[in-house]
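Intended use. Records like the one below are meant for learning the mapping from a protein sequence to its folded structure. Do not use them to infer anything beyond what is encoded.
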Amino acid sequence: MDDETPSTDVTLRATLDERAAAPHGELLAHWFRTATDLLFSTAEGELSDSWALVTESIDGAQEVRVRDVRTHWPHLADALRPSPFYAAAGFREPPSVDDSGRIGGVRAGRGGSHTELSAQLRGGERVADAAWCAHLVDFLATALDGADPAFARIDHLSFEETTDLEAALKRPHRQALRESRTLLRGYSWVTGLPTELAARLGGPTALKATGAFHTIHELHTGGLLLQSTETLAAYDHPHMKAVFQALAPVLPPGTPEEAPDRPTPRIVFEDASCLRARRGMEAGTT
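Structure written out for the chain above:
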């Protein structure tokens, strides 16, 4: 699923851990079904050609291949519910042979403790359209409403499994996964917080008061989705800095450094722990 597809430019990701509110396989199937219906409907660009591949284990055993995801959905759902090691689906606009969008899921972490969910699609000029951007957030809220995910994000022109902040801090991926309910893995146009981090930040009321977010979505089983600006196109450096400052209390410590594989990282090059310390000193003098 993490193969970079040139025809896509918007990426949605979420991470499930052992505290997910439902079995990973059920949430994986729900993610695929919701993405198929909301992101890749046949009415949306006539994405009528599709495929899917599910691999049960890391050694490649017991592969399931499906042509036409919508017609053969029951067969694909049966393959997803046992929570396989890897799953992917692609959607095309005939006669093109390139995918216009993809859905994915892969087990990660020690012993496959986590499941990484993803979706990639073509935004183009629509990243400046408020209704289309709201549709992306609605999808994420629907797909994760029963999950209480450990982390989630929506990015533009970012295809890496790890976040820009993780790369800049040189945080090992397994460590970031393991600590994701203690330290936030990164921040984006839309950032998903687990219940624990949302509570440490004061919940929706306190986060709204920061002025950093256009919309805050509360998930029914816990966690928040924080939308920085109305559109992806509007998410510039000042808005990104406002998000960084609002989330600094739960971000990992350390000064970010340039990463060779991230030529244009979307992060603030400041140590979040220093910002926390300054705020503590200011609070102590008032």
